[in-house]
Design a protein that fits this description.
Strand order of the largest sheet: 3-2-1-4-6-5-7
Structural class: alpha/beta
Order of helices and strands: HEHEHEHHEEEHE
Number of helices: 6
Distance between the termini: 36 Å
Bound molecules: iron/sulfur cluster
Shape: globular
Oligomer: single chain
Number of strands: 7
CATH class: Alpha Beta
Number of domains: 1
Length: 240
């Protein structure tokens, strides 16, 4: 394996330990890949060093073509498949009938409804039967994510939630990607630090909040799709 700079090597080793520890403690573990830069790091760690963790992603039906292309590049590099979950056709058809094809722009309720049908419902099917899921969230990504802990009990999805990159900085993530010459989403080089569905993502200016290109029309939104809900009074409680 490519050598990492010493500081990054220690950080990466701790994250790999956290992944392996999750397997030892929880048995069936899955990783929900967002295809973002953190996902590239975790995919590399999992497929190279903790291969029993199942990697999946949700194809909402509104992703960029570059997202599909990235899935293929990752699969080609490692010779493995990312499991793809899709929304239920009837749920999407019914939502579109009620709100219109791009009705998620009409209000936060409509947007969360679209995310629920296209992302959350397939996610719930994907994690069913697992004891823990891995996420790539980092504390410096947003005020709500700053409250996350490395192992939590996810009371909403009823399984443990493991976040091995919590103390990584954005620069660590990119240093790892470049040191290992890993494939990454082509839109990151075009001003898109955080990428979700195409109609709900746009490029930002240098210095902007990295998540400000997601659902940018919403005032005061937490910029989350519902997978990482968190309030100061903690919706997700720490594991005993
Ligand atoms: S990000 Fe946008 S298109 Fe994608 S599921 Fe959410 S509201 Fe729908």
């Amino acid at each position: 394996m490519t050598e990492l700079p010493p500081a990054l090597d220690g950080l990466a080793a701790r994250s790999v330990d956290a992944l392996r520890d999750a397997v030892v403690r929880h048995g069936k573990v899955c990783y929900a890949s967002s295809l973002g830069p953190e996902s590239i790091v975790l995919t590399d760690m999992i497929w190279m060093q903790a291969p029993s963790i199942e990697i999946f992603t949700v194809d909402t039906g509104r992703l960029y073509p570059q997202s599909h292309e990235l899935i293929e590049r990752l699969q080609h590099r490692y010779g493995r498949r990312i499991k793809i979950y899709s929304p239920e056709a009837t749920a999407v058809e019914s939502w579109i009938e009620r709100h219109g094809i791009n009705g998620f722009r009409d209000g936060r309720e409509q947007r969360l409804g679209c995310c629920a049908a296209r992302k959350i419902a397939p996610f719930r099917r994907a994690v069913a039967g697992f004891s823990a899921w891995v996420t790539g969230i980092r504390t410096d990504q947003s005020a709500s994510r700053a409250l996350a802990r490395s192992i939590e009990w996810d009371d909403i999805h009823r399984l443990h939630k493991v976040s091995p990159l919590l103390d990584w900085r954005d620069t660590d993530v990119w240093a790892y990607i470049h040191a290992r010459a890993l494939p990454y989403h082509r839109l990151h080089d075009a001003g898109y630090p955080s990428i979700g569905c195409a109609p709900c993502t746009r490029a930002i200016q240098p210095g902007d909040d990295p998540r400000s290109g997601r659902w940018w029309w919403e005032e005061g939104s937490s910029r989350e799709c519902g997978l990482h809900p968190r309030r100061l009074d903690a919706l997700v409680t720490a594991e005993p």
